[in-house]
Amino acid sequence: MRSLLRRYREPIFVAFLLALPFTVFAVKAKQKLALNVFDRTVISMTAPVEKFIVWSVQGVQDEWHGYLALRSVREDNLRLRRDLIREKSQSSAFAETKAENDRLRRLLDYTDKQGPIRSLVAPVVAVGASPHSHVLRIARGSEEGVHRGMPVISPDGVVGTIALTTAHYADIQLIVSPTSAVPALNERTRARATVKGTGDLARCKLEYGQRTEEWHDGDLLRTAGTVGFFPQGMPIGRLVNVSKKPTGMFVSAEVVPVVDFARLDEVIVVLGSQDAAATGGNAFVNASSVGANQ
Amino acid sequence: MILRALLVIALCLAAAILESVFPFVFHMSAARADLLLVVVLYLALNDEVIPGAALSLAAGYISDITSATPTCLYAFLAVFTFAAVRIGGNAVKTDGGPQSMAVAFAASLIHSTLAAVLFYFVAPGSEGLVLKFSPLIWSAVATAAVAPLVFSVLRRLDKGFVPADAALRVR
Questions:
Q1: Which of A30, A155, A289, B142 can pair with B33 through a Cys bridge, CB separation 3.0 to 4.6 Å?
Q2: Which residues, numbered 56 to 85 in chain A, qualify as contacts with chain B under a Cβ-Cβ cut-off of 8 Å?
Q3: Residues of chain B contacting residue A261, judged by C-beta atoms under 8 Å apart
């Protein structure tokens, strides 16, 4: 028996190393991600290096663009981009407010269902290491009040939710991740559905969209504002390739996210509603005024 | 031996940091190289079975932590890749160069497809498996492009340990 083990020790060892992670994966796959002390140690070793490299590179890039080349153009560009973000933010707010106002007028119900939200601006310092990951790392963690499950947005629209946190860093699971699902409604028809990640950074898919409702290419989907989730009315993406099969309850369609995840320098973590807790200092801003504050 | 293992793990951490930072700084979304996969390929083609498999597990584990994926997904895939390439590796002997690029390209495609299949079993409420080949191919091309460089770095690291081993053998 011992000689047999000695003879086949290499295949046995490899089989053990295959079985061990697969068992852990099978057991923990559908549970929420959790970090142990060793995981936290590795992240606390790598994340500051990532932050340092990104800030150094961005610092050099900013110096180059700001002072060495096309200084005035760069400044104008920054100002115009700020203006654009502000306008987009206001435009989104106005469009949603108008649609909501029309709807509420019809219902003779003027109650504002959404209170102001508390949020935290967080710089992005890295992306997930694997080419197939759908993760952004931000330099804000549990010490700053960021916790797992919190929604993350940008002035353009929905980004994702917090998947993991350490003391000063957190990982965002993007809405394009296959494990992500966001309740949505069609801005034009108010029809409800779910936007599900596919793993492709450029596409999500529409799920549970009733085929009896109207769905057209180009329709903008916004967050449905489920309690404890994303704020109501945030843009998610636009419908493409809508097709109604002859049978079945639901339409088939893809959703192109409005946010370009490869070009996010800062995001906004939604900490909760202002009704739920008092604001916690200068770092907290009202999401609706982010564009105006920049 | 322990020092070499620690250096390979340090190299894996450095590779994970580069994988995280470069695509972000240069706004890359599709053509992202999988450096840790190339490290696993090098180990499969050049290392002893037991230390190679253990280091592959470590590389996969680092990939898991830095990607916020379901626990041990990449750790399993790394050991699986190590075993598969090891078995098929007798036919493919490479010290780098174009051969390493071809191996990395093929391994990246298979690795990505397996990751998508395993993800499908994890994603709750998923309607079906979604495989988008365009990003997979771009990622495989980028992985193939960096493979000779990573092989070269690891080969240099290994050369540093040859004299000590040779001296032991002489003794």
A1: B142
A2: 57-58
A3: 29
Confidence of residue A111 (pLDDT cuts 50, 70, 90): very low
Instruction: Give the residue, B26 or B164, on which the prediction is more confident.
Output: B26
Which A residues in the span 149-188 are in contact with B, Cβ-Cβ below 8 Å?
A: 163-164, 171, 173, 178-179, 181
- Asked if the structure places residue A268 within a domain, the reply is no
Greater model confidence, A70 or B127: A70
Is the residue at A208 inside a domain? Answer: no
Is A1 a domain residue? yes
> Which has more pLDDT, B109 or B68?
B109
Of B24, B151, B146, nearest in space to B92 by CA: B151
Fold of B2-155: Arp2/3 complex 21 kDa subunit ARPC3 (1.10.1760)
Q: Given its phi and psi angles, is residue B9 left (phi above 0), alpha (psi -120 to 50 degrees) or beta?
A: alpha
* Total CB pairs under 8 A between chain A and B: 179
Look up the domain containing A22 and give its range: 1-31
CA distances from A61 to A65, A72, A74, A77 (A): 6, 15, 11, 15
Question: Could you tell me which chain B residue has the CA closest to the CA of A170?
Answer: B68
pLDDT digits (tens, 9 = 90+) for B42-67: 999 888 899 999 999 999 999 888 87
- Our CA-based measurement puts residue A147 at a distance from the nearest CA of chain B, in whole angstroms, of 15
Please state the domain count of chain A: 1
Domains of chain B by residue range: 2-155
Identity of the residue in A18, A124, A197 whose CB atom sits nearest the CB atom of B24: A124
Residue A62's CB: how many other CB atoms inside 10 A? 13
What ipTM was reported for this prediction? 0.81
**Global pTM value:** 0.72
pLDDT at A159: 92
